[in-house]
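Narrative progress, year one. The postdoctoral researcher (J.K.) led the effort to move from monomer predictions toward full complexes, under supervision of the PI. The following entry was the first complex the group processed end to end, covering 326 residues in total.
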Amino acid sequence: MEVEKLMIQSALSNWNLTINRLNKFFGALSTEDFYEPIAPSKNRIIYVLGHLAAVHDRTQEILGLTARQHPELEKPFVTNPDRAVEPIPEGKELLALWNEINTHLYNGMLTFAPIHWIGRHQAVSEDDFRKDPSRSCLSVLLNRTNHAGYHLGQLMLSGKLKS
Amino acid sequence: MEVEKLMIQSALSNWNLTINRLNKFFGALSTEDFYEPIAPSKNRIIYVLGHLAAVHDRTQEILGLTARQHPELEKPFVTNPDRAVEPIPEGKELLALWNEINTHLYNGMLTFAPIHWIGRHQAVSEDDFRKDPSRSCLSVLLNRTNHAGYHLGQLMLSGKLKS
């Protein structure tokens, strides 16, 4: 396999590893667990789930795959802090959205050739991209993987999943 | 620039982003702050710092750069949970080690050609690598970036740094 294809394979495999760990965490929750904070007086688990779903939904747009499918997630889970917007969808409903968004996003990413990965993403102008060619679609994938891992670390503090 | 070089640049830039955020966090701490838990009854900040330093020290070996320089970090910060091994180095001393290890690791990574990045890392056998060529040095970099981001997410919950 070519060097760049192996590199993309590593990046996608790292993405999957993090998404699978998040799925394992969310999948083990009871209906009530979603409303527990990750630590005393911190964000609730359901807010983190909604936040991740909203960010991954927007990522589809940034990678040029599709317009975001769930703009309604932005206000309660990105623009505002936890508990500021009510009502919000229930835990299991959000979990279904999260799975739907990730499946669509991942299937889209599988279609990208290496040249697309090193190309400009939709949130950077052509001028800015010329100045800094590291602002590529691949950077978005790596950055979102890290963002998901950052929140996974917080969720694991809740003690809802032991390993 | 060639496709694979741009890809490596993105991966290294993502690494730097996470390390810089961790450095900002650790650099803002008072001597006492290091001994605070990240959340009630959870690991102390100093344990997370020692853990990250130990893992990055070992990463130098796994990438084939050098034998680990600080094996003494393994017992208190990797093999055992927080508070199980005493005494441990002081916060500022660990922070100096952390900086030294990261500088050495990063300078080493800068010398790797793309072909080295997609090559086998030292913790996988030649046989296993043939079966799964995604277990490369690049995978180690991406995995360690995620690991650092995971703990950054936890540290940020301590409220010691606001942004």
